[in-house]
Every structure is written in structure tokens, then in C-alpha cells.
Amino acid sequence: MTARKYCDACDFQPRYSLREVAQYSNPGFFVxxxxxxxxxxxxxxxxxxxxxxxxxxxxxxxxxxKDLQNANATAxxxxxDGKEVVVEPTKLDTTGAASSATSTAADMSKLMLMFxxxxxxxxxxxxxxxxxxxxxxxxxVSKIDFSDLPPISDKTxxxxxxxxxxxxxxxxxxxxxxxxxxxxxxxxxxxxDKNAGIVVLxxxxxxxxPEAVRAYFLNQLLGLDPEAGQKEIFADNEKLKKLLAPPxxxxxxxxxxxxxxxxxxxxxNDYYGRCAILQDGDALKVECGPAKYPATLKHWNNGxxxxxFPGATQVPSITTFMIGEDGSAEGFANEALGVFTRVQEKx
Length: 347
Fold this sequence. Notes:
Strands 11-12-13-14-15-16-17-18 form an eight-stranded antiparallel beta barrel. The chain has a six-stranded antiparallel beta sheet with strand order 5-6-7-8-9-10, with helices on both faces. Strands 1-2 form a two-stranded antiparallel sheet. It has helices at 3-9, 26-40, 44-53, 96-99, 105-116, 129-136, 209-221, 230-241, and strands spanning 77-80, 83-86, 120-121, 124-125, 140-141, 159-160, 165-169, 172-181, 184-191, 196-202, 265-269, 273-280, 283-288, 293-301, 304-308, 317-323, 329-334, 338-342. With 347 residues, it is α+β, with helices and mostly antiparallel strands. The radius of gyration is 23 Å and the shape is globular.
């Protein structure tokens, strides 16, 4: 899928009106990148390279996943069946601003220092001071959820600015941005009034290590007990590990009363497009989109199936079929993707 087609797929009414409810959106980051690219009359990749990476001398940073082919690039890891294994890095160059930038700790420190210096780097103004101020300005209140680890709490609050989050801790405003892709967890933290910050890059999927380092750093910087919150973070880390675990198999699973052939067909969703369910020997497989992105489809319990796409961040999702009067599936509902309707054959 091209960036243009992805933009077209985003042309749906949002669930809530503007600033009614905070909704983190990776497609939103992508669209913002495309808007900036259009305004500058160049691609998002060239814009970032020319306006940020080059003037900041971030020589080991890139805007495409091919930059990870360097022999010295870190290997992404994930926990599979309780063991750490090397996994393929996420390759989402199409959604550039949301997913394809690559960098190093040394390069990221230059970006961090530029923000702390009100947009300046080595005597050159990369961003206007008022631009940095606008980025940090709070524009939306967000609720605290399970992924917000200490020191973030109901007492600190959490707010969104332009591509960053912020909260109040020990009398200081904290600015940060975290990220997660297959086999990678990252966080950049700034304390502007202390002219201090830290960036943590971890090559393990769904680990709270960046948050543990963040908490220790902030507590030490602000004169608090560095160990405060660590036990809670490590406990939450164990909960995070369970997120990718498949649903526990039922002790006495019910049978699927239909036939696999009755589920075979092409199904369509307004947002995701078409997915084909195909018979593969005595099993089923799924192919989605023009690229035929693959997934497995295995019976789980009482006619419910588990759909599993490849990748360290993909969780098996329960899929149920709507069966018509003729015994064939008219559609299916997937916990992660929504409802798909069978495409009727032209007669």
C-alpha cells in the first residue's frame, strides 16, 4: 500500500469530536508527517533528513527501515514461549512518520539537547523557540491507563502536546515520548527547567526497562529516593508479558459444527479492505490486502477461531463467523480488526 492509499483509508469519521476524548493514533502521526511533507513540497523522508538529521549532525539516523541493514545494527528481541529470541524488525516504511525512523542513542541525544536548548544546536537555530514551546504546550488531558508506569499516576496527571506527552512530578513539568515496535521499546524524557533529559533504547519487545530507567533518573535528578516505584514497575512488567500470550485453551473445547470450506471466501471491511480465507490442506489461512499479508486461522472453542498475524507485537485475536441459511459464512467479527462482510460473487 502506498502512502496515498493509506491516507485515503484514513478518510473516515472519528469516533469522537475534536479534543472530546484523548485517542493516541499512529495513523495520526503518519498523517501529520504527510501534511508537513506537502507543505514543504518534498517527501516526509527528505523533510526530516534536511530539516533535522543534517543540521543536527545525526549521521547515523535514517527514515527507512533499510537503514537497519548496517552490520552494527542492534538485533530486535522478543519473548516467545518464555525465551528471548531474535525477531525481524518492523518494516512499515509506508507509514513513515509513525514507524520508520531509525537512530542511535548518541544521535538521539543531539535531538534531545536541541529541544532543551529551545531549538538551537551548535549556535544554529534548528527550530524557533516558540515552536518548541508550542510542541510542549498541553492541548489535551488523557486518562491514566495500565500502560502508564511510575512515576505517572493520578497525582501527576497526563497530557498531550504536539507529538509528546507531559505530566507534573515533584514540582516539575516532564516532557516525554515513548515508542514500541517489534523487538524494540524506547523513551525520550526531558525536564526543561532542569536542562536535563535521558533517552533509553531497548531491544526487547514489551519490556518496562525504559520506564524503570526513567523513574530512577527522575528520582535521582529531583532529589528523591531513586528506588521509589521500582518494585511496582517490575510487577507491571510481568503483567505486560502476559499481554501477548494467547487466550488460555479451554479445558473441554467445543467443536466447530460446520466445515472449513463453508468459511472459505473473500471478506471486506471499509477500513482494512479485503481479506481472503483459504483452505490450506486440513487447515485455514488468511491473506489480507494487495500484498496478501498472511495470518493463521485455527479453531479454538465452540466455533470461535484464533487469527494470528506474524510479528512480535501481534496478539492472537478471537474471530467468530456469522453463518447464513445455506451454511456458509456471511461474515466474521475479529476482536482486533472489526467486522468483515463476505464479498458476493457476481452471477
